[in-house]
TrEMBL record:
It holds the Pfam family ASC. Belongs to the amiloride-sensitive sodium channel (TC 1.A.6) family. It is found in: Membrane. Coiled coil: none annotated. Its main location: membrane. The chain crosses the membrane at residues 97-118, 490-517. It is a multi-pass membrane protein. GO terms for molecular function: ligand-gated sodium channel activity. It comes from Acromyrmex charruanus. This is PPK19 protein. Keywords: Ion channel, Ion transport, Membrane, Sodium, Sodium channel, Sodium transport, Transmembrane, Transmembrane helix, Transport. One of its GO terms (cellular component) is plasma membrane. The keyword Chaperone does not apply.
């Protein structure tokens, strides 16, 4: 608190108020100066009030003593439209009320629009856009081409394997049952377990120790007898070098350019996956399939069932790292030109950064995940759930589940209807009342979809199939999955809504923060001031005084007697003896 000084000086010394100089002009000048001082003194006498000079702190700034004062100041100086009219004292109360109603309505509409936009952002909707209509096929991985003959058991090899399976001789009934099982498995795929219905009335306990998966692998047709005349990238190739044994939902087959094959590639230095450099005939893979080299069964029971089977091969086209599950059957005696059109796509980084429950696809950094593979593993899971085993001749082997034996075929037959139907369901809540396999398999974020077009020319008097798989064109479509509303889009939308309805901006928010901070500091300063008030006097003071008149005033006197001036009349009354 600044000290208060009362400056009341009349300078009544003889050298100032009564001139002593002998120069008449100087005397006149002193008289004029003394008269001005006298007039000033007389004003003090008439008013009875003397001015107290207070050295205030000029850097105190704004002080808000109440919330109402703060809001009034904010509404007066803010850039938000309408608030200054609400607190304007020059407007009529009705006008101010109408402005308040308009401001409340605008604020409500803006809040609803912002809330709906925020909910839409939380839902994280995505959109698929075309990134390029001329994406080069040379950048695409060539698909995996899997060949599965309709009869996947060479019976010459099966007869050679029988002494190893039954070394000590077995009763004829068990041997016939084994051959019949092998004949059915050579033609069936997953979900065709009803073909084994004849096992329900037979005792297969003596066949329980047979590893049926290993048996099917050893009796499959040999590569050098089944495939020939292979061509890849403008050069003849050894078929057994580029085709590998592949386990599928049809059983054991041969696959080209597969990354999930059973046997490793013969040339580890070759780049994987393989890619084609051109399009049209003779630019992809060519192969001749000799179905006549597969030995048919000679025993009567199996021949009757196989007589209805049409000779041909199932061609499965999919991505190199996908588990083969379904394909197209091509009959024998055909020259087939298979043209491919690939549609590829990917998800942007903004999609991959979404929460797991909001991502429209499944991302795998290693590129191993694929929806089709997930569905195959889902089927394996449901078989293990109901039958406690894994049909490893259809699906990948797994240490969690034991391989199914011939005794487990009874369970597979029982639940065959369930294994023929699956539903792709997203989320954690499964519909338990639906008698089907529920698979939670999202689409992959990076995908390649191969569409095929066939051109078939019959080959007379031949049991072979000549297959040419190639790209149809030099370019393809490439798509991009992105989110509809990004964080930047949301910020811009919020700013536009606030500006449209309220005329505010980011600076308006800064103003609000500024006034809130000012209120905090003002409140703190008021508390400190309240504590200091008992020790300090008021900063503004008016002192009412009586000034006694000056006696014996004569400016022409050479020397006047000094008469004291008392600002307090009480002091003059106590010192009457001095006059």
């Amino acid at each position: 608190m600044e000290a208060i000084r009362i400056e009341l000086s009349m300078k009544c010394d003889s050298g100032e108020l009564y001139g002593t100089t002998e120069n008449p002009f100087a005397v006149i000048a002193d008289m004029k100066s003394s008269r001005r001082k006298l007039r000033k003194l007389m004003r003090v006498v008439r008013n009875g009030v003397t001015r107290i000079k207070f050295r205030a702190n000029k850097s105190q700034g704004k002080q808000f003593n109440t919330i109402i004062q703060t809001l009034n100041y904010f509404c007066t100086h803010t850039t938000i439209h309408g608030l200054r009219h609400i607190v304007n004292p020059e407007l009529h109360i009705i006008e101010r009320f109408l402005w308040l109603v308009v401001f409340v309505i605008s604020s409500t509409i803006a809040s609803n629009v912002i809330y709906s936009l925020a909910l839409r952002f939380q839902d994280a909707p995505t959109v698929i856009d075309i990134e390029s209509m001329h994406y080069g096929t040379s950048y695409l991985p060539f698909p995996s081409v899997t060949l599965c003959p309709n009869d996947r058991v060479d019976w010459n090899r099966a007869l050679e394997l029988e002494p190893k399976i039954f070394p000590n001789g077995t009763d004829k009934a068990s041997l016939e049952t084994f051959r019949k099982i092998l004949g059915k498995l050579s033609m069936m795929s997953f979900g065709d377990f009803d073909e084994l219905d004849f096992l329900k009335n037979q005792n297969v306990h003596s066949l329980a120790g047979i590893n049926i998966t290993q048996v099917l692998y050893e009796v499959m047709p040999r590569c050098d007898q089944l495939l020939s005349s292979c061509w890849w990238r403008n050069a003849d190739r050894n078929c057994c070098d580029i085709f590998q044994v592949q386990k599928t939902e049809y059983g054991f087959c041969y696959s080209f350019n597969s990354e999930v094959a059973q046997t490793p590639p013969t040339d580890p230095m070759e780049s994987w996956p393989r890619r084609a450099s051109g399009y049209g005939d003779w630019t992809g893979v060519k192969v001749t399939i000799h179905l006549g080299s597969i030995t048919k069964p000679s025993h009567t029971n199996s021949s009757d069932s196989n007589a209805k089977q049409v000779d041909g091969v199932v061609v499965i086209i999919n991505e190199p790292h996908v588990w083969p599950n379904s394909g197209t059957m091509i009959p024998s005696g055909s020259r087939v030109s298979m043209s491919l059109q690939c549609i590829s796509g990917y998800a942007t980084r903004r999609v991959l950064e979404l929460d797991k429950d909001k991502q429209p696809c499944q991302y795998d950094e290693n590129g191993v995940y694929h929806q089709e593979t997930c569905l195959s593993l889902c089927k394996r899971y449901w078989v293990a759930k109901y039958c406690s085993c894994n049909p490893s001749f259809f699906f990948p082997a797994n240490n969690r589940f034991r391989d199914c034996t011939i005794e487990d075929f009874i369970c597979l037959i029982t639940y065959n209807d369930l294994f023929n139907d699956y539903i792709v369901h997203f989320g954690d809540d499964y519909p338990h009342d639906i008698p089907s396999m529920i698979c939670n398999c999202l689409p992959e974020c990076d995908y390649y979809i191969y569409n095929t077009q066939f051109s078939n020319v019959p080959l007379h008097n031949m049991n072979d199939i000549m297959l040419d798989v190639h790209y149809l064109g030099q370019t393809s479509f490439r798509y991009k999955t992105d989110i509809v509303i990004s964080q930047m889009d949301l910020l811009v939308s919020f700013g536009g809504i606030i500006s449209l309805f309220l005329g505010g901006s980011l600076l308006s928010v800064i103003e609000l923060v500024y006034y809130l901070v000012s209120v905090m500091f003002s409140s703190l300063r008021s508390r400190l001031k309240t504590k200091e008030e008992p020790r300090n006097r008021s900063s503004v003071m008016h002192v009412h005084t009586r000034v006694l008149p000056i006696l014996d005033y004569n400016p022409l006197k050479s020397r006047a007697r000094k008469i004291p001036i008392f600002t307090n009349y009480g002091l003059a009354e106590l010192n009457l003896n001095r006059y």
